[in-house]
Amino acid sequence: MHCPFCRHPDSRVIDSRTSDDGLSIRRRRQCPECGGRFSTTETASLMVIKRSGVLESFSREKVISGVRKACQGRPVTEADLAVLAQKVEEVIRQTGVSQLDTNEIGLAILGPLRELDEVAFLRFASVYQEFDSLEDFERAIGDLRADHTASAENHPDAVKADSADG
Questions:
Q1: 3-state secondary structure the chain
Q2: Structure confidence by residue, pLDDT tens digits, 117-139
Q3: Which of 64, 86, 120, 155 is the Cys-Cys partner for 70 at CB 3.0 to 4.6 Å?
């Protein structure tokens, strides 16, 4: 690491701390030449391979903007979108790969979006998974219904509460 003051090609780490989200490390450094102190932030790079073959850095903002369109008119806040993007990045980083294609990012988005809002999930899935017919929508809705049924069977208290309302 070059010193930003005197451009000496080396520096000494005097303190390291992990960020709150655990995705980066802040290091306090000192130059052995001039004695200047400065901080650096280190993160593991995560690169996305676009359909065209171009490489670019992963961006939570791009995840948010892509999902925002599916969430239009839904009760989803900007904070919800930020949390979703963070979950997506965490899922991707847990794979341990440094490069992934856009398709893998889409798959990583589907789970958290399904938990956030099922209508937005269907909208996103219909574009991402290229639904061609009503049968594709019916299959996706059937999967959602099956999950609701399984969830209700695993949580008998939820079933009692539902039957008490009716």
A1: CCCCCCCCCCCEEEEEEECCCCCEEEEEEECCCCCCEEEEEEECCCEEECCCCCEEECCHHHHHHHHHHHCCCCCCCHHHHHHHHHHHHHHHHHCCCCEEEHHHHHHHHHHHHHHHCHHHHHHHHHHHCCCCCHHHHHHHHHHHHHHHHHHHHHCHHHHHHHHHHC
A2: 999 999 999 988 889 999 999 99
A3: 120
Cβ-contact 88, 108 below 8 angstroms: yes
Q: Is 22 left (phi over 0), alpha (psi -120 to 50) or beta?
A: left
pTM of the model: 0.67
Is the pLDDT at 99 greater than 80? The verdict is yes
